[in-house]
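A brief tutorial aside. Many learners find it easier to grasp structure tokens once they have seen a single protein encoded end to end. The record that follows does exactly this for Ribulose-phosphate 3-epimerase. Read the sequence first, then the structure, and try to relate runs of similar tokens to stretches of the chain.
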Amino acid sequence: MQQPVRIAPSILSADFANLGAEVRAVDAAGADYIHIDVMDGHFVPNLTIGPMVVQALRPHSAKVFDVHLMISPVDAFVAAFAKAGADIITVHPEAGAHTHRTLQLIRSLGKKAGVALNPATPISVLDYIMDDVDMILVMSVNPGFGGQSFINSQKDKIRAIRQRIDAVTAGTSRVIDLEVDGGINAEMAPVAISAGADVLVAGTATFQGGPEAYADNIRRLRGPLV
């Protein structure tokens, strides 16, 4: 079943000169997860951070570190991010030759395993890995940059994945989170939630206005379901 909505501010939109303070600020403002976008300039057209930055941020918050690896090949970096303090590690099927093996690796390190679907990635990639995922991330923009607009076709994908998750978990204690990342703001958050999302990644919509605005920004993203 769809779980209570959680907000995962993406530090991609934070002040990189003050990342520790920014993480503390969104933590105090009510963030549920800290979403960390890792980009390699190869798999996606941008460069961000590596395991050393994750490790440096770890003492600044006890919240879940939701680390999204947009790097290829990905397997060689999984252990480093696990050691650095990631709680959830999400990978793309296109970023390695053996997605099932990558998910097994993440879980063997004691971390939750996520799989991310780009806008053009079909949900059929989930056919034989549902037993090995703790989270499915729907990218509602093409990954690489913040501030993009939600791609409307992804609403149907979110609904279809919600149905698949509910079918797999029905009658069990299993929980598979459905996360949506891209173009999430106060207007689009209810759309994603109504389609079945229970974790929302929001960068620009969280960090706009400075630290004094973060709590109100997060409340608006949660919407009337809170």
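Self-check: The beta strands are 6-9, 33-39, 64-70, 88-91, 112-117, 135-139, 177-181, 199-202. If you spotted this yourself, you are ready for the next section.
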